[in-house]
Design goal:
It is a single chain. This protein is an alpha/beta fold. It has one domain: LmbE-like (Rossmann fold). Helices cover 39% and strands 16% of the residues. It contains ten helices and seven strands. It has a seven-stranded mixed β-sheet, with helices on both faces. One of its GO terms (biological process) is glycoside metabolic process. Keywords: Zinc. This is N-acetylglucosaminyl deacetylase, LmbE family. One of its GO terms (molecular function) is hydrolase activity, acting on carbon-nitrogen (but not peptide) bonds, in linear amides.
Length: 264
């Protein structure tokens, strides 16, 4: 049942493009859940299998990390209200300078134009009016995130739809401390600044209690990559209750979801 505070977005579709399993929950979990609760069709596109992540839990006999991460992605997608999950099938490229950057199936080696065309074709098939992807630095300069930014920006141009580039508020998260958000450690791994300054951000969305709970549940579903202790701490509400975007193109129905209500 659609919450009374939300507009009726039945019949509207949004594409959400991410690099790896778990990124969808960390950076856009609130947004996806709110779109779904408003009746919109949420199509999640994951570019890589995330096979270069380090397994933090034991795998089952004969189970691969790739298989576990796909299972976690499917579970998180269900929690966040995803209607369709699309896998682009590329390999994880790893961090800057890793030899895996040069693997022929790595996302970094995929032609941007051809991959963007695949995404644009999905937008046309789904009659999507907008796409979410990453900001110009891939939030924290992970090579696959930067590739997803370029793919998403070009796909939006090809499909003639608005793009909303997911980012984080650098000032807000820096104020909370160096381990308040998973992006802090991620940025240390790439030796790069993360996110954007508040003046560069077009809009932010703030979670309700239910949305924040869904986001946490989706994040910890990725147990092979994220420990409960890494996010289930006192600073979690302050660090994760916002999601931030830059808009490129005309305003869309996304702006109808931004007004704050019943905030956590």
């Amino acid at each position: 049942m659609r919450p009374a505070q939300l507009p009726d977005l039945t019949g509207r579709t949004v594409l959400v493009l991410h690099a790896h399993p778990d990124d969808e929950a960390i950076f856009t979990g609130i947004t996806m859940r709110r779109f779904a609760d408003a009746g919109a069709r949420v199509v999640l596109i994951c570019a890589t299998d995330g096979d270069l992540g380090e397994a933090l839990i034991p795998l089952q006999r004969h189970e691969t990390l790739t298989a576990r991460r796909l299972l976690e992605l499917e579970r998180a997608a269900e929690i966040l209200g995803v209607s369709r999950l699309v896998l682009l099938g590329h390999r994880d490229s790893g961090l800057p300078g890793w030899p895996q950057n040069r693997h022929p199936q790595a996302l970094l080696r995929a032609p941007i134009g051809a991959t963007a065309r695949r995404v644009a074709d999905l937008a046309a098939e789904e009659n999507a009016e907008m796409i979410l992807h990453y900001d110009w630095r891939g939030i924290y300069r992970h090579p696959d995130h930067i590739a997803v930014h370029r793919i998403g920006r070009q796909a939006a141009r090809l499909a003639r739809i608005t793009s909303y580039e997911s980012t984080v508020d650098r000032t807000h998260l820096t104020r909370l401390g160096e381990n308040a958000h998973l992006v802090h450690a991620a940025a240390r791994s790439t030796s790069a600044p993360f996110g954007l300054f508040p003046s560069e951000i077009t809009l932010s969305i703030r979670a309700t209690y239910a949305e924040l709970a869904a986001k946490l549940a989706a994040i910890v579903t990725h147990a092979s990559q994220i420990t409960g202790e890494a996010v289930a701490h006192a600073a979690f509400p302050d660090a994760y209750r916002f999601e931030w975007y830059q808009r490129f193109g005309e305003p869309t129905f996304f702006e109808q979801l931004v007004p704050t209500y019943a905030v956590a």
